[in-house]
Amino acid sequence: MTKPTIKMLAWGWLLGIASAALVGIVILVLVLTGVAFNTSATSADSQIFAAAIHATMTNSVKRRASGGAPRLPLDTATLLAGAREYETHCIACHGGPGVARAPWASAMLPTPPYLLDTPNRWSHAELYTIVHDGVKMTAMPAWGEVESDRQIAAIVAFLEVLPKMTTAQFDRVRQRARPPLLAR
Ligand code: HEC
Q: Is residue 90 in contact with ligand 1, taking CB distance under 6 Å?
């Protein structure tokens, strides 16, 4: 067998790079023309794709969460303020103890998760970051665009006690937090 010359090796490399680029371009064209990717919210993501974007979101939040998220005293006023925010802005998508999310929220992809174990998985600063900054390419809004830092801190305080609430306690707190339907 003849020993490969530098020139033959260089051509081999070049050919390898050119075919990899061609495969990349073909995949890009198939995705951009909608052949290889269905954006319909009824077509579930593959497990690998879903796991990859979830890992990206988790790592992005952990990297960006600052240690300095505001914290309010954990008293009745804070919890009622958080409950009121939750009632008006979150419950339709995320439900609560004994309360299902709205049927239209279940039709979203990704489906908004129930938030009954979030303090076990996210630190205070990470929860604050998720609620304040939202999650791109999902339906999770950046509440920091419309709510004050204190309101977001109250929401996070509420999220942190939510898993400890019974269905009856959650129901009671909702009654107290609900704004009256008609002004007196
Ligand atoms: C229109 C629907 C919608 C509304 C309203 C909404 N969210 Fe979300 N939220 C989502 C979706 C969808 C996700 C999942 C994002 C993902 O998969 O990365 C999410 C994720 C989250 C997470 C991370 C959950 C986890 O298990 O990791 C938290 C915490 C959260 N939302 C809190 C809130 C709070 C608090 C409010 C109200 C102030 C709120 N959300 C309002 C759709 C919504």
A: yes
